[in-house]
Amino acid sequence: MSGTLPASSVDEFQIIADLFAPLSRGYPGALNLTDDVALLAADPDHETAATMDAMVAGVHFLPDDPPDLVARKLMRVNLSDLAAKGARPFAVMLAAAFPRGTDLDWMQRFAAGLAADVAEFGVSLIGGDTVSTPGPLTLALTALGKVAKGRAILRSGAQAGDVVWVSGSIGDGALGLRAARDGWPGLAAGHVSFLAGRYRLPSPRLSLGAGLVGLAHAGMDVSDGLVQDLGHICRASGLGARIEAAKVPLSAATAAALATDQTLLASVLAGGDDYELLFTAPAHATEAVLNLGRRVGVAVTAIGSMAEGEGVRVVDANGGTLSLPHGGWRHFSATETGAGA
Ligand SMILES: Nc1ncnc2c1ncn2[C@@H]1O[C@H](COP(=O)(O)OP(=O)(O)O)[C@@H](O)[C@H]1O
Ligand SMILES: Cc1ncc(C[n+]2csc(CCOP(=O)(O)OP(=O)(O)O)c2C)c(N)n1
Ligand SMILES: [Mg+2]
Ligand SMILES: [Mg+2]
Ligand SMILES: [Mg+2]
C-alpha cells in the first residue's frame, strides 16, 4: 500500500466525519454518522433482507488490488446476495479493520470507490465501525434491501422439474484471480484484462433479481462455486439437480483459456467468485425468463433441471458424469484445507 500522506495524519473520528459521513446523505435515520445507531423506518408492506459478507486481504482480494476496487467489490458481493433474493438495496453498514500504518491516501481511495458505488446503486452508508488491526485488512459490509412481504426468492423453493438457470457467464472470477495474480502468457491481453476485471469488480444482478420475484421458485448467488452453490439449493429444497457442463455459459475469454487447457473446467464449475445468479423456475416460465433477461440486458442460460433425489450431477459432453475434486470454496473444511480455484 502506498500513499502521499504519513500514517500519523490519520485520525479515527476525522476519517468517519470526512470520508464516511458524506456517504450517509439521503438517509436521515443515519444521523449523519454522529450517534450510536441508525434508525430504520418500518414499512408494513415490505420485509427487509439483511446480509453480511466479509472480505480479508489475501483471502478474498489481492493485497495490492486498487483500494477503490476493493471497496466496490465489498459492496457488490453483498448486493449480489440481495439481488439473489429479489430485494432492492437501500442501505449498507461498513466495518473496516485497517492494518496499523495504513495511510490516508489509501483510505481516501477506498472511500472514493465506496462513494462511486453508493451513487451507482442508490444506497446510503448508514453506520459501521472503524478500527485498527495487527492483522491483514479486514472488511465487512452489511447490506439491507427491501422486498415485498412473503415474496423473497429463497433457496428452499425449488420444485422437481424446474429448469436451472444462471445469469451472465461462469468461471471468469476464478480464472480472473489467476489472471490478476500471475498474468497469463499465451492468452490474449484483452482476455487477461477482462478476466482480472471480472475478479476485481463483480456486477450484482439487481434488476434481474427483482424481475425474478414471482417467476423463480428458488435462487441464490454463485460465490463459492456453481456446483457447491447449486448443492445448497438442492439441500434446502430436498431435491437433486442435473446440469450439463456444455450448457454452462462461458465468456469469450474463459472459452479461450479452456481451449488451451481443458483441466481448467474444474475451476470454471467450482472456483467461485462469479457473483452471478443461480435460480430455478418452472418450465412454463421459460419464455418469461428469457424476456426478462433481454429487458434487463443480462444473459440468462438454462443449464439443467431439478429432480427428486439429492446432490448435483454434472453431465459431460458424452453423457457421463463429470467428477470434480471439489464443488467449491470452503473457508474451513473437516477433510481439506483452503479448497479453492
Ligand atoms: N458468523 C455468522 N453469524 C451468523 N450467521 C452467519 C455467520 N456466518 C454465516 N452466517 C449465515 O449463514 C448463512 C449462509 O452464509 P453464507 O454461506 O456466507 O451465504 P452467502 O453465500 O449467501 O453469502 C447466511 O444466513 C448467513 O447470514
Ligand atoms: C486472493 C484470493 N484467493 C482466493 C480467492 C477465492 N475465494 C476466496 S473466498 C471465496 C468464496 C467467496 O467468499 P465467501 O467469504 O465464502 O463469500 P460468501 O460465500 O459468504 O458470499 C473464493 C472463491 C479469492 N477471491 N482471492
Ligand atoms: Mg456469506
Ligand atoms: Mg455472499
Ligand atoms: Mg462462501
TrEMBL record:
InterPro entries: PurM-like_C_dom, PurM-like_C_sf, PurM-like_N, PurM-like_N_sf, ThiL-like. Mg(2+) 4 binds at residues 36, 51, 81. Mg(2+) 3 binds at residues 36, 81, 221. Pathway: Cofactor biosynthesis; thiamine diphosphate biosynthesis; thiamine diphosphate from thiamine phosphate: step 1/1. ATP binds at residues 128-129, 155, 223. Mg(2+) 1 binds at residues 53, 129. PANTHER family: THIAMINE-MONOPHOSPHATE KINASE (PTHR30270:SF0). Reaction mechanism of ThiL seems to utilize a direct, inline transfer of the gamma-phosphate of ATP to TMP rather than a phosphorylated enzyme intermediate. Belongs to the thiamine-monophosphate kinase family. This is Thiamine-monophosphate kinase.
